[in-house]
Design brief:
18% of the residues lie in helices and 36% in strands. By secondary structure, it is α+β, with helices and mostly antiparallel strands. The strands form 2 sheets. Strands 1-2-9-4-7 form a 5-stranded antiparallel β-sheet, with no helix packed on it. A 4-stranded antiparallel β-sheet has the order 3-8-5-6, with no helix packed on it. α1 runs antiparallel to α2.
Length: 193
């Protein structure tokens, strides 16, 4: 078998790509603590909602978007907040995902911000389950994720809250392999022999 030196880097690249594709994808790490409220409490969270007698966590079979539990957020006469300060990397993009359910009450509001940037804001959100996903960039090494709710006299539920870095490491590795392949292809002589 005759193998030219110019094609050897491509063979190595093809083998490395096949190996990377064969390895299981690594799940991105969720920066949010207790984002599915599976410990039956609002542990890991802060904000004015913690002192509200109309808020907490509940575990009712078949009602949660993820797992068995979810937070319920009720207010009386004011807007309450539920927040976490996350360890982030300045300049890094993050996927912010959550599911909330609205009862459709009038004079209600639901908003979420990431590092002071409003990702979602609605007055009297439509009744039903809303699965939302946003991409936001962190400006500092710590970033506040804040849910602001007002639903007097109703309730919202919140579940499946996650913040993960994008792109995932496996995706970045595959992109890097693709760039290496392009570089190797460009270095290869393209004339006929």
């Amino acid at each position: 078998m005759q193998l030219r030196f110019a094609t050897r880097p491509l063979a190595v690249l093809a083998a490395a790509t096949a190996l990377a594709l064969a390895l299981p994808a690594t799940a991105a790490t969720n920066l949010v603590s207790n984002g599915s409220f599976e410990d039956r409490s609002l542990a890991g969270w802060s904000g004015t909602v913690l002192s509200s007698p109309y808020s907490g966590a509940e575990c009712i079979s078949g009602t949660a978007a993820e797992g068995a539990c979810q937070a319920f957020l009720g207010t009386f006469g004011s807007t309450d907040t539920l927040s976490q300060t996350l360890a982030t990397t300045a300049g890094q993009a993050y996927a912010v995902r959550f599911v909330f359910t609205s009862d459709g009450s009038a004079l209600a509001s639901f908003a979420v911000s990431f590092g002071g940037q409003t990702l979602y804001s609605a007055s009297s959100p439509a009744a039903g389950m809303h699965a939302l996903s946003f991409t936001a960039t962190a400006a500092a090494s710590s970033t506040a994720l804040v849910f602001s709710v007002n639903n007097d006299p109703g309730y919202y539920t919140l579940d499946a809250v996650s913040v993960t870095a994008v792109p995932e490491p496996a995706t970045a590795a595959l992109m890097g392999l693709g760039l290496l392949g392009l570089a190797a292809w460009r270095r290869r002589p393209h004339g006929r022999r």
